[in-house]
Amino acid sequence: MSTQSNAARTIKVFTDVQALNAVKANPNGVLGLTVKKDRKTGKPKEYQGTIFMNATYTIGAEKNDGWFVLTEDVPLSRGVADPLNKDDKRNQYKGTRNQLEMKLSQAGSIGQFFDLLNEPWKALIQTMNNAKEIPGGSARKLHELLQYTLSADNVENPGAKLDDPILRFQVNEGVFSKDYPYAFLRGQPKTVFLDYRTRYIDEQGKEQFKLASFKDDSGNDILVTVDNMHKFITNGSVLKRGSRIMVPSGSRSKEWISLPVDINKAIIEPRSEVAGFSDELPVDMNALKAALPVATRPLDTTAPAQAPTVTPTVENKQVDEISSVLDQI
């Protein structure tokens, strides 16, 4: 159940630093979980084989239901998967493609927070399972908050410990439902993409950003969406301070128990060209030709380009399948 009234106009948002300090001070006193129950029967509510748990976070004397804002820039460890790249295992399911990834060593306070919360998370689930609060919970595998090891199925180094664990934020499609507890969010996108380069100060003196977009092959401005974000969030991109995440609920699926971290406001600084390369300066083509030891053969620009092979993306319906793929990445 939400810690705020449905009529609340604002949501309490903690900073990453507040969250980190709280889990350092009281590791087992930050996260709380309660299984969602059917109002009529009082039994755990199940939807398509999944049972959900409401999460609350106690920071000092205050509590919220999982909203945090980044106060530090976090470099992404790689760009979003290109759905046309059939060699990228993340494309097996939408759930594994639609993620922002970062290394713990570069994730700042938010990374340290989830790293320190991981053991209390596991202990809390064990306590709930011992009390039989989660139906079938003891028979499920538990997802850690970061990826610390490679899976046993990894070809090169099965089960190996990662030197630098991986933190992932889920990018969500669609909008908040008409029944969402906070009325002002109903019908609003679950994930919004903003371009850090468009920063400006509004009339109230607040920092604002414009919706992220990119140029298509015809030079048209295209708004960034979940389906095309790989064209904007490429290798070298940075998730900027002011970005907001939400961690409102845990879930018990057919095989796993997990606590997904969702990105709500993604302020992205795309990768920029690195200054200092000579090809950024005007090139004297005559001097270039004279410097070549042998004649070069011009490119045949009349030959048709080979069309890329498109591999359909299989839409994921189960948290379990996402988990198995992540373990192999």
Describe the protein's architecture and organization.
- The chain is of the alpha+beta class.
- The protein has one domain.
- It has five helices and 20 strands.
- It has helices at residues 16-25, 94-97, 108-130, 285-291, 319-326; strands at 14-15, 31-35, 46-47, 50-59, 62-64, 67-69, 74-75, 99-103, 141-142, 147-149, 161-171, 192-201, 207-211, 213-215, 221-223, 238-239, 244-246, 249-252, 256-258, 262-269.
- The strands form three sheets. Strands 1, 6, 7, 8, 10, 11, 12, 13, 16, 17 and 20 form an eleven-stranded mixed β-sheet that branches. Strands 2, 3, 4, 5, 9, 18 and 19 form a seven-stranded mixed β-sheet that branches. It has a two-stranded antiparallel ribbon with strand order 14-15.
- A hairpin with a 2-residue loop joins β3 (46-47) and β4 (50-59).
- α1 crosses α3 (108-130).
- The chain is globular, with a radius of gyration of 23 Å.
- The two termini are 35 Å apart.
Primary descriptors:
disordered N terminus; single chain; about 325 residues; globular; about 15% helix; alpha+beta
Q: Largest beta sheet, briefly?
A: 11 strands, mixed
Low-confidence stretches: 1-7, 273-285, 291-329
Helix and strand content put the structural class at alpha+beta
Q: Tell me the fraction of residues in β-strands, as a range.
A: 25-35%
Mean pLDDT: 83
Secondary structure: number of strands:
20
Structural domains: how many:
1
Shape summary: globular
- Helical amount: 10-25%
Evaluate the radius of gyration.
23 Å
| Terminus-to-terminus distance | 35 Å
Order of helices and strands: EHEEEEEEHEHEEEEEEEEEEEEHH
- Summed up, the helix count is 5
